Amino acid sequence: MYKFLVIQTAFTGDVVLATAILEKIHQFYPDAQIDFLLRKGNEGLLRDHPFITNLLIWDKRKQKKRNLLKMAMRVRKEQYTHIINPHRFPTSGFMMFFSGAQYTAGFDKNPFAFSFTKKAPHNIAEPHAKEYIMEVERYQLLIEDITDKTAAQPKLYPTPGDYAAAKPYQDGPYICIAPSSVWFTKRYPAERWAELLDLLPAQYNVYLVGGPDDKELSQSIIDMSGNKKAINLSGKMNYLESCALMQGADMNYTNDSAPLHFAVAMDAPVTGVFCSTISSFGFGPTHSKGRIVEIDYPLYCRPCGLHGRKRCPEGHFKCALDIKDEQLLWWISKTT
User: Fold this and answer.
1) Residues near 301 by Cβ (< 8 Å), separated by ≥ 6?
2) Whole-angstrom distance, CA of residue 255 vs CA of residue 236
3) Taking all residues of the chain, what is their mean pLDDT, rounded to a whole number?
4) Which is nearest to 145 in space by CA: 102, 176, 94?
5) What domains does the chain contain, in order, with CATH numbers?
C-alpha cells in the first residue's frame, strides 16, 4: 500500500493551500494512507479531515532543533513511500533527506533539493505580468508525475460541531470581515474597514472574525463605525468554526491573508483586499466566487516585496488608502 506524507510547516494559509495536494492524492490513490506534517498551532485546520490518517505536529517554538531531530526520526520510522513537500526551507528538506522514502518531491529552492527524486521550479511572475500561475498550480507540479497536470481546489472539512457553533449567527443574511494580517502593509486600515461597515446594506449582520490577537483591532473598527449590527467574533471561534460561518456568508472580506484561503476552501464568496501585494504572485482566489480589489492605477512602489512589511517603506501607504469604497461594494447590486 502506498503511504504518503505531505509536509507544510509554514503558516496557516500555506496549510490551507496544501490541502489541494491532499485532494489530488486522494483522487488518484483512494486507498492510500495520507499523513500530514505541520507546525504546532495549525493542527486545528485539519482536525478530523476525512483523507488524513495521522497528523504529525512539530513544535517549532520550543527546543526547535531537538524537536526537529525527533520528528525526522519519526518520519523515517514511518517508512513513507511518497513525501510531498511544498515547504521551501531546510528544516523540511532535512526531514525528507533523512526519510528513506522512495519518492520525494519538493521545490528546487529548498537547500536539500539535490536529494529529491522530483524537483519542480517555484517561480513567481514578474510584477503585473499578464500571465502567471497560482500557488496551487505550483504545488501541482510536485505531483503531476503521479497524478495529472490539473490542480485541485483547496478544501477544508468543518465537523458537525463546527457547523453547530456557527449556526446561532446564521438566522439572517450576513457578511464576514477578517480585518487583520500579520503584516502591516497587507492590512487594510482599520478606519477604512469602519467606513465599509457604514456603507453595507442595513439588512446584513456583520461578523468580524479572527484570532484572539485580533480582538482589539476588530473592536476598534466597530467602535469607529456607526453600524449597530456589527459583532466582534475575533477569538471566539476556532479555525473550522470560522470556516463554517464564512461558508454561509453573502460575502467575506479579507486581506491577502489566510482567511481568503479559508473562503476558497469552503467555496464561499470572497473579496480579497490587496494592498502592497499583487495578484500575479499567485495567492489570490482560485474559484469563481472570488475577486481581488486593489488600487486602480500603477503605483511606482507596488509591490514593495513578495511578503508584507511592518511599515510602508515610502510612508504614504497609498496602495491601501487609495482603494475606493465603491470597489469593495462591487457585489451589492448583484444580490440586492
Assistant:
1) 313, 314, 319
2) 20
3) 96
4) 102
5) 3-141 (3.40.50.2000), 160-335 (3.40.50.2000)
